[in-house]
Structure formats: structure tokens, C-alpha cells
Amino acid sequence: MDQIIVQILNGLDKGSAYALIALGLTLIFGTLGVVNFAHGALFMMGAFCAVVTSKILSSSHKVVDETRTDFLGNPLEVDVFYVQDWFGQAAGAAIMDWAVPLAILVSIPFMILLGFVMERGLIKHFYKRPHADQILVTFGLAIVLGEVIKYYFGANPIQTPAPDALNGRVDFGVWLGYGPNVVVYPMWRLVYFFFSGAIIASVFAFLQFTTFGMVVRAGMADRETVGLLGIDIDKRFTFMFGLAAAVAGIAGVMYAPIVSPAYTMGMDWLVLSFVVVVVGGMGSLPGAVLAGFVLGIIESFASMPAVVNLLPGINQIVIYVVAIAILLIRPRGLMGRKGVMED
Name one GO molecular function term (predicted). Predict the structure, then answer.
């Protein structure tokens, strides 16, 4: 039973990332009708926002420390961090330690701006083009973004640690009545799960309870009628593209301590995230979230040593097998709407 609990937690952890990426993808498809194959690259860009923020906050300069000498008696040059010069020793150390959460403040405006530039500069020219053209141009954009990251940051993954206070383990089993050290789980993964839940709930609340969100939902259902009411729905949809980019970026920032960012990160998540969207139902926001968590849990159980020993390689293909089975039974996905991508 303890192994089952661990696998459920692993599934919720990975499912959180699937759900956040799929949510952004579905927002873009539902509002603009664009199949955005660059969305995995947006997740990667968010992760590298954490890398850049961490590097900036850990920038240092050399000073001569008269209290320390080398073996010849000469004063030593030591590295002093700029943030400690500005904010003091203790506050500066805390700021560097919490670089990943602070990167969220950097990633939100950056990712919204990047989303605006992508939508206005490139994607708007493909609204009325076939989905195959949209896939080709956004896939090419994803490759370009990956190569840019590779050029500036290299090909190797870059470790980006979580804050020390959240870098330990939680004795989760004690909460469920088990003995000590029976079900132990990394604290940051639990933080990621709850953080993802808060972001997903915020997006749904924004769409459900704000006037802006209600207009967007109306435009998703009937764009022409909303336009006839004198509402500039295009500007609102452009904002939604920026919001979707920000959601993907935040997901990448918080995932950086779990999987070290690398330029291949976007491609690693691209295909899986689209499988999640299709299984959930194209254009269905609740379906994308539901499918993300369901497929994350299934993949986690398929990765158990007992399962892999019985069926070698099943953990690599189980999501696609489940997706095929679901689509054979429900061709529109779990919560898909009639008429979406059926023309």
C-alpha cells in the first residue's frame, strides 16, 4: 500500500506539469484555433528564466580580504555576492536561496511579452491557414528557441536547486497513520503539486468569474456574434495567448529543481502534452486538466520496477497505448465537444 501511495504522489507530480502545459495549449487552441507546437518550448523558456534569475542573483565580484592571507602572507581575493552588498549578509543569502520562487516574478512579464511577440509577429498570419501549416511553423519556432538556448547556455543540463527550506523530504506516511519513514516524499514535489493546483484554479476562476473571462468564453463559443456586439475579441484573444505562455513559463520555472533545464526540454514535453490535450478533448479546459492527472498517474504506475520487469519498456509507451484506447472508445476525448477539429 505504501508503494501505491508513492506512485500516486509521483503521478500527481508529473500530472501537474502535464495539466499546466495542456491547459495553456487548450487556451490557445480554444481561443485562436491555433495548434501551437511551440508550447513545449515556452515551458523550456520558463525553466531557463529560473536559470537566468539564479545566475544573476549569484553574481559576484572580487574584493581583497585583509583578514585572510595566502601562504606567503599576501591578502586573499575573495568573491562577494552583489546581493549581499546591497541587502546585507543574511538577506542576500536568503534571496539567492529563494532564486527559483523569485524567478516567477521575472517569468510572468517575460513570458507574456514573448507570447505577445509570437502571436502578433508570426502566428496571427496563420489563423486561416490549415492546421498542418500551423504545426509546421510553430514546430520550426520551437526548434529555433531550443537552438537559441543551446547557443547561450550549452547542451548540458543546468542544476537549479530548490530553496533549502523546501529541499528536504516529508514523512507523508505519518499523516496517513503509517509508521515513521514508511512513505517519505520530496517536499518540493509536493510544493509543485499544490502550486499547480493554485494556478489551475486561478485560471478557471479568471475565466468563470471575471467580465473579461466571460467575454473570452463567449468568444470561444461564438466568435462572430461577440464581434458583432462591438467587442474587440481579437485583442482579448491575444491577451489569452500571453496568459497561456505565462502559465507554461511558470510551470517551467517551478519544475526546474525537479528536472535540470536543458535545451531539449521543450521537445521532451511537446508530444506528451499534445497527447494529453487530445485525450482530454480538443478545446476542453477541464478535459485537459483531467487527462493530465490521469495520464500522469498511469505513467507513474507503469514505471514501477515490478511492472517494468514484467513488461519491459511499457513505461515509455503506456501513455500512447491508453490514448489509443480512450480515443477508440471516445473519439472526441474524455470531455471533447462536437465539431472541434472534425471538419
Answer: transmembrane transporter activity
